[in-house]
Amino acid sequence: MTWELFAVFIGSSIRFAIPLLFASVGELVSERGGVLNMSLEGMMLTAAFVAAATSQAFGDPMMGLLCGVIAAMLVALLQAFLSNTLRANQIVTGIGINILAIGGTTLALREIFGARASVEVSGFGKWSPPLLGDIPIFGGPVFTQVWLAYLAIALVAGVWFVLRYTAIGVVIAAVGEDPQAARKAGISVVAVRYGVVLFAGFTCGLGGAFLSIGDLQTFTENMINGAGYIAIAAVIFGNWKLGRTVAACFVFGTATALQYQLPAMGVNVPNALLIMSPYLLALIAVAGLAGRQRAPTALTVPYWGR
Amino acid sequence: MSLAAASRAPRRISVGAFLAHPVLLPIIAVAAALLLGLLLIVALGTPVAEAIEAFIRGAFGNSYSVAVSLNRAVVLALVGLGFIIANRANLTNVGGEGQIAVGGIAATALALNSVVAGLPLGLAFIVPIIGAVMAGAAWGGIAGVLKARVGTNEVISTLLLSFIAVWLVYWSVQSVNLLRRPMTSTATLPESLRIPAETRLPYVSDNPAFPLTIGIIIVSVLAVIVAVVLARSVYGFRLRAVGLNAVAAARAGIRDGRIAISALAVAGGFGGLAGAMMLLGEQHVLKNGFSSGYGFDGLVVGLLARGSVVGVIAGALLFGFLRSAGITMEMLAGIPSALVDIVQGVIVLSIAGAAFLLDRRGTSR
Fold it and tell me: Chain A closest CA to B341's CA: distance in Å?
């Protein structure tokens, strides 16, 4: 492989990793607080569709981004209400939301854009930071990205700082590990859990919009196609720690890019093995074969107090 | 005395308590979701009468559509029965989709084996069924072993195993070395050969307009067995003991690790059986994505049943007919079958969400 092709490969690995990064950072925060959102997929799909439709309607991708994020946060609000106020089973309600999101976006796509499975929309242009973009060979393919990709990196840094150095991080951990004790310390468990789920909705909104009006500039039926579930696998493989979760997103993104790269290079690896690799790696991790694994103690356990 | 007095004290009758009736609640949720679907049809501008006619034709229109809906319900009921067995031990099996998938792979592999296909006395289809059950049980059992040995949350492991199995189907039909039919041209579809007639599941009647398989008999017998085992047997008691208090059960000499492994293996076996019913009964060819949606629909059926076998049957019939009706509605009245997804999603969310009206009295202080 030439250096040019390698640079293109790295660039496409990053592009596949970014939506995972957005979704799994939000999910990490939410799971640290004890709420598992099986509905990441639905949040991303809703955001991708609403961002595409509104970006097209207003002729302004910024409006699309705003509306997409708000839509995903509304889905997250539904999830938070079901998980925290109604104390419903988090897995089931998450799957229910995903079914609803697929049905809703497919129906709306047909109604707004006619009987097509895919529409092109206007979106953000690509951009490369000064200096980095001028690096020979790698500057173009690797660093020329939609600005949202750089926002993802900033988001990771911000979440790392908040979880590591602020009281908010401690409060979230307390709520996810021992909600009763957190309550006795005067923390409103339900309020914190609403907050973390809404944050997951916010990041999934960015991730879904990145796909439809950022990277691809199209909306396709069911275009998230499992990325939400892979993001959950990334959090699991990441052992509920930020650094490892981010690394997992890039590994999974690279595995996706390899699905297209390897056949082009004439390497014969079963495609299915690459597609299933995120789930396989996550399973190996939870099986304890990759070091000791520990989920937040109160993960998926509803809190029955106030 | 005080207990008797308490039970005789007038209970507060509220709308919430009325709605929280365990039978009434799902009926209300389903009716509300169907009403919402109807409103959406009106909003889409399709004549309602036409839509309803297409819906009813799809569900009950002729013997063929009834049989198709029932066959679908059989699959959902099997997954749902497996779910409530594991759930009795407080284990949540969300891997139905993958258990169907490995069951389908095993059933296809065995049915395409010339030795198996030549077996007499119905063994030609019984052997693939047994293979599918064992494959599903192994797949569920992995999650059980992880739970017992490492303490891995079974929700996470069954979910991950499910995705892996779904892609194993893709792998099996992509590779000629596995189950893909011989490539005669570049246009050869990525799917298995059609299984021989002897290995297919027999139909209940000879009438070709009513292709109901004997799956309905199998699931009816199993439903009775499951109900008896859960309510009356020692094994059912152990499951419940572990589910209610694993520590107390261990003190009483029940090995909760073994219960976890066996319960998830049984749940997986039911999923594998469901895969065999689909493959040997209706599809006859292994294709990528053949299990799509069935596992999750079955999970929902199991969950909404709240541990009751009768509930599983009712839910399986509801979703079986709903899906078939949706497909017909799309063909006849041009209403996207996505509408059925919406209705189903609303049913799931409203019943799962309202479950707290039922649970509240029991579990909260």
Answer: 5
Q: What is the CA radius of gyration of chain B?
A: 22
**Interatomic CA distance for residues B162 and B99, integer angstroms:** 7
Q: Which residue has the higher pLDDT, B2 or B344?
A: B344
B2 assigned to some structural domain: no
The count of structural domains within chain B is 1
Q: Which two tokens stand for residue B296?
A: 């999750």
Round to whole Å and give the CA distance between A186 and A174: 11
- Cβ-nearest to A103 among B150, B338, B349: B338
- Number of compact structural domains in chain A: 1
Tally of CB atoms within 10 A around A247? 14
Asked if residue B7 belongs to a domain, the reply is: no
Q: What percent of chain B has pLDDT over 90?
A: 25
In this complex, which of B40, B170, B349 lies closest to A82 when CB atoms are compared?
A: B349
In a domain, A49, yes or no: yes
What is the complex's ipTM, to 2 decimals? 0.85
Residue type, B133: V
Q: Is residue B20 part of a domain?
A: no
Q: Which amino acid is at B230?
A: L
**B-chain residues near A275 (CB < 8 A):** 167, 170
Candidates A101, A68, A17, A99; CA nearest to A205 is A68
* A305 part of a folded domain: no
Q: 């991790």: which residue's tokens?
A: A285
- CATH code (residue B112): 1.10.3470
Percent over 70 (pLDDT), chain A:
97
Minimum CA–CA partner of B173 in chain A: A272
Nearest CA distance, B339 vs chain A (angstrom): 6
A291 found inside a domain: no
Question: What are φ and ψ of residue B180, in 5° steps?
Answer: -65, 140
Rounded to 5 degrees, what are φ and ψ at B147?
Answer: -65, -45
Examine the pLDDT at A23 and tell me if it is beyond 50: yes
Collect all residues of chain A within an 8 Å Cβ-Cβ radius of residue B159.
91, 229
Q: Which domain holds residue B210?
A: 28-40+48-180+187-355
Q: What is the mean pLDDT of residues A140-156?
A: 85
Residue pair B280/B100 in contact (Cβ under 8 Å)? The answer is: no
Residue A85 included in any domain = yes
Chain B stretch 91-120, residues whose beta carbon is closer than 8 A to a beta carbon of chain A: 92, 94
**Residue B160 included in any domain:** yes
Phi, psi of B271 (to 5 degrees): -65, -45
Confidence (pLDDT) at B328: 79
Q: Residue A278 is part of which domain span?
A: 3-125+147-286
Which domain CATH number covers A276?
A: 1.10.3470
Region of B191 (left: φ > 0; alpha: ψ -120 to 50; beta: rest) is beta
Phi and psi torsions of B120, nearest 5°: -85, 180
Q: Which residues of B touch A233 (CB under 8 A)?
A: 160, 163
